[in-house]
């Protein structure tokens, strides 16, 4: 074997080894990004589950309250309309890549939460309702669901933070740009939640 052939084979072997290292590096980072994006999607589905649980409880809660507090029609209408708006939004994981759709979803959910709060404040006027076992069970389930929503939203934001941080750092930002990974939206606090509510007795 000639010296030139040996050098040529050595250079070719070096190029193959370097190409293998680069491809392995790229694939490793790409797979990490895929795993993190799936974590975001999974935590999003948990948020959706809790919102669905809340939506399923609302008709029973409203009908229980309606039986006792018939003249609170404005409150019932607000809850029903807010729930209807939430149900009109097509919820899927594609929403995570669309900040406007995500913001619309969050606004509808916040509006529903606000309407539910008004409904529960209305209940304070009716001692018979506060003693109703069915209502108390529904109220406890709703409070538990609201807590779960808060926890799942926090978990979602943590997953989004990890993903967004990774795709902004070098060299993952290079791979994210090539592979089409983009930042995900966070759940934000409701506007005005930084101001303490005014409580009057």
Structural description of this entry:
The protein is mostly helical and 201 residues long. It contains 6 helices and no strands. It has helices at residues 3-68, 73-88, 99-123, 127-130, 133-168, 172-179. α1 runs antiparallel to α5 (133-168). It is rod-shaped. The chain starts with a helix and ends in a 22-residue tail after the last helix.
What is the gist of this entry?
By secondary structure, the protein is an all-alpha fold. Helices cover 77% and strands 0% of the residues.
Quick one: how many beta strands?
A: 0
The separation of the N and C termini measures 99 Å
Q: Helix and strand string, N-terminal first?
A: HHHHHH
Low-confidence stretches: 193-201
Helix content: over 70%
Structural class: mainly alpha
Global shape: rod-shaped
Average pLDDT over all residues: 84
User: Over all CA atoms, what is the radius of gyration?
Assistant: 26 Å
Query: What's the tally of helices?
Result: 6
Main sheet properties: none
Estimated share of beta-strand residues: under 5%
